[in-house]
Amino acid sequence: MDSRFAPLPVRQLDIGSPAEPKPGQAAPAPHTDEARYRAKATEAAVKFESFFIAQALHKMRDATKAMAADDSFYKDSVNSDMLDMADNLVADQLANRRAFGVADAILRQLLPPAPVSPPENSVISKKKPTDA
Questions:
Q1: What are the boundaries of each domain within the chain?
Q2: Superkingdom of this entry's organism (predicted)?
């Protein structure tokens, strides 16, 4: 048997169960394509923020109806469908701007932290003592 082409042991190939993250290292993304995972997580977080804002607007509109007088135009439910649609559109716009920060909070929990690069030497430390 020719020993030049001996197969590698399975543990050297990292085949099988996923490796545990090392201490101080962020957990790997569940998908192999991290950019795709990041895009899907961002889209889901923004959609959740939009849903959250839409529910808040809906509850505020319900509270306004409950507190309004009987002859108030706030009690009129003629345009309620259009107002719900408008609330959803406003919620989408606010979520796309990340106005409430809900999507950012979710992404901080879902995505691994960005690698921290070592600080570069400052301009002051690069100057020689003889420089003026």
A1: 32-111
A2: Bacteria
